Amino acid sequence: MAEIVVALDFPSPEEAFALAERLGARVRCYKVGLELFTRGGPDIVRELRSRGREVFLDLKIHDIPNTVAGAASAAAALGAAYLTVHALGGARMVGAARAAVEGAPTRILAVTVLTSLAADDLGKIPGTGPKAPAEEVLRLAALAMESGAHGVVASGGEVRAIRAQAGADALIVAPGIRLPGDAQDDQRRVFGPAEAVLAGADLLVVGRPITRAVDPSAAFDRIEAAMRPEMTEA
Ligand code: C5P
Predict the structure, then answer these.
(1) Would the N or C end of the chain have less CB density within 10 A of its end CB?
(2) How many folded domains does the chain comprise?
(3) Count of CB atoms situated within 10 Å of the CB of 123
(4) 30 near 55, Cβ under 8 Å?
(5) How confident is the model over 12-71, as pLDDT tens digits?
(6) Which residue CA neighbors atom 15 of ligand 1 most closely?
(7) Does ligand 1 have an atom closer than 6 angstroms to the CB of 156?
(8) Alpha helices (H) in the chain, listed in sequence order
(9) At 111, phi and psi to the nearest 5?
(10) What is the CATH number of the domain that holds 114?
(11) Which residues are catalytic?
């Protein structure tokens, strides 16, 4: 069953933990990204783990295979449930990340094309052609899955095609989730929770609609209810 991962995009560990405290037991997994990790380091992961939470370590790693293997092994030792790497690092790099977490429960998720990149940006990046981003996303998702990734991060509009291509076992993560009436913030294309789940997403990454809500717990519960429309009917 699909679940919500709350993105702890805060400039300080104190703010992140205060939110986690408010949300309580309803949240099983938190996403820790580059900002929070760079400020708080591995202790952030250890603290969340000690509170019984899973950690989605969103470091979007991209380096030579040996370095990536070392980082992936360190993330596994920390107890991260998920770790992101860039598919653009290539087959050997993704494969090295996967090999490094073998035997640990850590899942390697590949980021394909950053949603901040449009077609004209793509034409200027080595290894990608002047293609439509959607085409490049599918190509990189296939490369990552064939190289050992457990899944991919995809914007809502790509989920269905990736699910069709990658099969039932791939883990598909969708960010950019909003309820009708939510602020879009800097997201350019947003998707409703039910829409993302019906398209085949396993994990819905949600940040600001929960973290900036006046009542974060109520916001979480609303999104969760919207993921399962069959449970709210009657
Ligand atoms: O606040 P919001 O719900 O937009 O946060 C979404 C989270 O997912 C952020 O941490 C953001 O970095 C991440 N993300 C995204 N779009 C992508 C990949 C990751 O918004 N394509």
Answers:
(1) C
(2) 1
(3) 11
(4) yes
(5) 999 999 999 999 999 999 999 999 999 999 999 999 999 999 999 999 999 999 999 999
(6) 175
(7) no
(8) 13-23, 34-40, 42-50, 65-78, 91-100, 119-122, 133-146, 156-166, 193-199, 208-211, 216-227, 229-232
(9) -90, 135
(10) 3.20.20.70
(11) 60
Residue with CA closest to ligand 1 atom 18: 175
d(CA 93, CA 85): 9
The owner of tokens 């009436």 is: 181
d(CA 204, CA 109): 14
Cα–Cα distance between 91 and 44 in angstroms, integer?
A: 30
pTM exceeding the 0.85 threshold for the entire prediction:
yes
The pLDDT tens digits for 58-98 are: 999 999 999 999 999 999 999 999 999 999 999 999 999 99
Q: Which ligand 1 atom sits closest to the C-alpha of 9? A: 10
> Which of 205, 210, 211, 222 to mutate for ligand 1's pocket (most ligand atoms within 8 Å of CB)?
205
- What's the Cα-to-Cα distance from 41 to each of 35, 122, 183, rounded to whole Å? 10, 32, 30
Q: How far is the CA of 92 from the centre of ligand 1 (A)?
A: 26
177 DSSP assignment: B
Termini Cα distance of the chain: 21
Domain that holds residue 34: 3-233
- State in Å: Cα 230 to ligand 1 middle: 27
